[in-house]
Amino acid sequence: MFLQTDAVLGEDAIAELKALADIINKSIATIETSMKDSSLAYPSPAASFSPQSEAGRNIPEVQTAGSNIVAAASQLISIVRPPPLTLIAYALQFHVPTALRIAIITHTAEILRDAGPQLARVLRLLATNHVFVEVAPDVFASNRLSSMFDTGKSVEEIIAHPEKKYEGTIAFGALLEHFTDDVFPTSAVLPNVIVDPKVGRLNDPTKTAFNQAFKTDLPFFEWFDLPEQTHRMARFGIAMDGGARLAAPDTIIQGGGVGSQCMSLAKHYPQLSFAVQDRAPVIQEGVEFWTKSLPNYIESGKVLLEAQDFFTPQPVRKVSVFLLRMVLHDWSDEYCIKMLRLLRAAADESTKLLIVDNIVSYACNETSTNNIRGAERPLPPTPLLPNLGHTSVIAYYTDLTMMTLLNGHERTLLEVQGLMKESGWKLVEVYYGDPFAVGQSKAIGVPV
Q1: In which domain, by residue range, is 299 found?
Q2: What is the mean pLDDT of residues 348-372?
Q3: Which residue out of 130, 161, 268, 329 is catalytically annotated?
């Protein structure tokens, strides 16, 4: 349903600008006070990135203040920039991932660490988006953002062993390559898929924008398993591991891939035992991961790594908690319901279901969910959007990524509640991550 925006908003623009500026100023004051109280420095955009340098930004009240600034600044820009320019900027934003990919595959961050710049026109677009800095005409330098995909290796070393470019690094460049090389081409054909009367309404994981873009009938992950896609699959694995390591330490504690979340739990709760399930190729990597990090868990049987098709019955065993981290967003509702029903069949009365995923908010006031512990969140300061606008935009980008690659999607709390209700579970509690978090929300269900 669509409404006339003038009737909905009717907001005086100058008053809104002043309110947004006030939010920004108050938030900056909060950050300044927190930095003084903690004796930490707020990270400078001119300094190279390191996880340790983010300590000041990770203080909870600083995270909240920062999220308000991002939301207010983006909303302020949407008011003051002429509408045609805003829409043109949105429509041409695809050049940014193209420029990022060029910078990454030409090893520009590594080159600038030791020598002068190249690719001036590409770098100028990135510098205009605050990635790199143009310090003089056609002279560029790296900054905090570009340092994120600097591997720290020499260009000669990378050229000699390109398959090892991201080994031993924070691997953020691998994540950006995945986005700009694997995901970007699929987004370009998404409009054609949506309006296609044959596949536009299907939830089939083999009828996606990815399938059209890469001309394959295989699901995304099976295509990655092909011998000719070995490089992409290896890069994807490094990217997912690097992305997880950039999250706040022990995020899972506060509220499977190769089992990195279970490993975090194992280090905090050594009395627990784990069964880590995934596709066979991932489990092979998982054995190496656990053998290297916690070999005694493999030897003692406290961790069991097993290949499992999530759409077949679970092995019979007493399970205290089923943990699904970034799994459901890969699938459309019908597949999620089938998966959760199989878990319900393997559960007993005391089993809990823990879903760790993005829980996206509406861009308007939401229906009350006060019967679920932790679901009610205070609204941000007026006139910010209820979902904090640009602060939360990564979750919505991820939503379209899931659509293009897998016909999956990120879900609202009511949608998660609906999946549980249809599969024999009841949503009883929610934990939200920090305002900038991606994939850190937790939904807890119990059997019914």
Answers
A1: 234-447
A2: 88
A3: 329
